[in-house]
Amino acid sequence: MTPDSLKRLREWFRANAAELPWRPADLDAPRDPYAVWISETMLQQTQVSTVRDYFIRWMKQFPNVETLAQAEEAEVFKYWQGLGYYSRARNILKTAKIVAGLRQSKGPCKMPETRKELEALPGIGAYTAGAILSLAYHQREAILDGNLVRIFSRLYELDFLPTDKGKIIDCHASLQEARNDVQVSTARELAHALEKRSSHGTKCNDVRASEIYWEYARKVADSPKAYMHNEALMELGRTVCKTKSPLCETCPLHKECRAFLDGRTAEFPPAKKRTEKSWHGTVLVIESADEKILAVNGGQKFLDKQLALPHFESARHATVALPAKAEDYINADDVESLKHCGTFRHSITVHKIECDVLHVQLSTKAKSAHLPKPTANSDKPTVFEWIEKAKALETFANSFSLKALKKCL
Ligand code: SF4
User: Fold this and answer.
1) 268 lines ligand 1 (CB under 6 A)
2) Which label site among 232, 315, 319, 387 has the fewest CB atoms less than 10 Å from its CB?
3) How far is the CA of 235 from the centre of ligand 1 (A)?
4) Is 209 within a domain?
5) Pair 284, 137 in one domain
6) Are the C-beta atoms of 173 and 203 separated by less than 8 Å?
């Protein structure tokens, strides 16, 4: 992108930046690195409109690294509940504890200020590190998220994604050499420049898809205004260069956007090759005579390391009968009644889930005090816990279990 187009981008951002709880009114003010870290982690895979309230609630409860580092995992999950991808919440807590442990004096905890240190922390990848370094510390560090990928793909007609495997361009010169010597604006030009160099017998290197995208991102960030370029591109991708029907007429970059000029915006970026996996299972809502519900932590297909309802893979239920797998959790002789409460659909990562929900009422002789024991063939540690039925909806911190519970309660 030329200095002129970056200037237009900044002007557009100053005029159009949305008010967001993690964005101060002064767009040039350095941000709180903790707030950048939390908001950017929440925004991964989740829309801004959803994150808004979660972020406000979170910052009230955990206003800084110190308070977060002292929290229990269950409390952190409670404030994350509904955002999905619970490994993100778990990693946030782990990182907070590490950062708190790094504090050398009684001063406030400080997020690290180098990419290397940040990327060594759980849950902080290249994107989040770049966001913290540029937005909070005003360093010339690049970011690359889905918004920037979409914009670069359209600006330069890149017909591949950063995640595409294999060698995108086989070449016989280094990317660094080409970058220094030639002005390139498209991947094809880059490939061509590299091929040209190969005839001069220069060193062999392979340029991979993600390197090309990161190279464009680094060029945008190679400026004292990196923080604004990065954030402006994220905003542009979210509000103007949208996945469907981009608003090109209002885009500050349309004069140089190849996909727009060629009338090919719908072709870029190319569709993701995503392989979804269907999974059908059964969720058990096991209720004891003293009105407690059995919860399991660990050893299950989904939702490891958090309380979830017992579940396992199964065929669709043609009749209401106790599945053999249910005896991993209870003794069949203790069952007083069985009811099929319905089915629900859910998604976890690439899994498209459909589950039957069975309510299993235990007889009076099976009090919750008689906890079931983990099965001997369990390959992961499993903890069973009986929770008050009246508090069940507020105890589970995952929508998978909540959807099943709501079918029965
Ligand atoms: S001109 Fe259109 S396609 Fe190109 S960057 Fe702008 S909004 Fe996206």
Assistant:
1) no
2) 319
3) 12
4) no
5) no
6) yes
For 245, phi then psi, to 5°, come to 50, 65
Question: Using one digit for the tens of pLDDT, what is the confidence trace for 363-388?
Answer: 887 665 555 554 444 455 578 888 99
- Taking the centre of ligand 1 as the mean of its atom positions, its distance from the CA of residue 270, in whole angstroms, is 15
Looking up residue 27, the CATH number of its domain turns out to be 1.10.340.30
Query: Can you name the residues that pair with 283 across neighbouring β-strands?
Result: 311, 357
- Give the separation between CA 356 and CA 316, rounded to whole angstroms: 7
- Residue whose Cα lies nearest atom 1 of ligand 1: it is 254
Q: Are 280 and 373 in contact (CB under 8 A)?
A: no
Residue-range definition of the domain harbouring residue 124: 3-143+216-240
Catalytic site includes residue 40: yes
Domain shared by 294 and 384, yes or no: yes
Cα of 3 from ligand 1 centre, angstroms: 17
The reply to whether ligand 1 has any atom less than 6 angstroms from the CB of 8 is: no
pLDDT in tens, 196-217: 544 443 333 446 788 889 999 9
Q: How far apart are CA 46 and CA 20, in angstroms?
A: 15
The Cα 383–Cα 358 span in angstroms is 21
Task: Note the ipTM here.
Answer: 0.99
Domain count, the chain: 2
